[in-house]
């Protein structure tokens, strides 16, 4: 019992994000009754990153328009941003910008269906000064229960 090693939601979100064939990867995940989407966002403002990911998740039917689902997604996004920004979710106010790809994945990573669904947000891209060539790679992962 417990966490199913073949359905670790964070690992699957990162693999989806970094996949060269995300469409096929999404189809495989959907066969396991999971939902997911990918996208890109670039900004000097953290709230724009949050908004882009929330919009993609809503448009792709990953979350319903109820508070608890939006709230779970929000916390997963902020946790992933902590990884990208090294613990301080500040961008433009400290002269940083990001160019990120993201993956959002929803499913049950446990053997017992009663454990319910979880949501994972994976971010990968660059962060740095708003000058071309003054950035470096970064990755972040956030997971929250729904």
UniProtKB/TrEMBL annotation:
Coiled coil (UniProt feature): none
Domain of life: Bacteria
Flavoprotein found in the keyword field: no
Alphabetic keyword roster: Activator, Histidine metabolism, RNA-binding, Transcription, Transcription regulation
Gene3D superfamilies for the chain: Hut operon regulatory protein HutP
InterPro entries to which the protein is assigned, alphabetical: Regulatory_HutP (IPR015111), Regulatory_HutP_bacillales (IPR023552), Regulatory_HutP_sf (IPR036482)
UniProt xrefs under SUPFAM superfamilies: Hut operon positive regulatory protein HutP (SSF111064)
Gene Ontology biological process: L-histidine metabolic process; positive regulation of gene expression
GO MF term list: mRNA binding
Subunit structure: Homohexamer.
Family: Belongs to the HutP family.
Role noted for this protein: Antiterminator that binds to cis-acting regulatory sequences on the mRNA in the presence of histidine, thereby suppressing transcription termination and activating the hut operon for histidine utilization.
Protein name (Swiss-Prot/TrEMBL): Hut operon positive regulatory protein
Lineage start: Bacteria, Bacillati, Bacillota, Bacilli, Bacillales
Gene name as annotated: hutP
């Amino acid at each position: 019992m417990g966490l199913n090693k073949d359905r670790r939601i964070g690992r699957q979100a990162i693999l989806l994000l970094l996949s060269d064939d995300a469409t096929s990867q999404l189809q495989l995940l959907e066969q396991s009754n999971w939902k997911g989407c990918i996208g890109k966002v670039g900004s000097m403002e953290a709230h724009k990153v949050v908004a882009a990911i929330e919009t993609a998740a809503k448009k792709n039917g990953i979350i319903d328009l109820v508070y608890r689902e939006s709230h779970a997604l929000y916390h997963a996004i902020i946790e992933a941003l902590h990884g990208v920004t090294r613990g301080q979710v500040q961008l433009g106010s400290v002269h940083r910008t990001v160019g990120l790809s993201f993956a959002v994945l929803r499913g049950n990573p446990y053997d017992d269906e009663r454990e319910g669904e979880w949501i994972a947000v994976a971010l990968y891209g660059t962060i740095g000064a708003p000058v071309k060539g003054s950035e470096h790679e970064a990755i972040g992962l956030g997971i929250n229960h729904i």
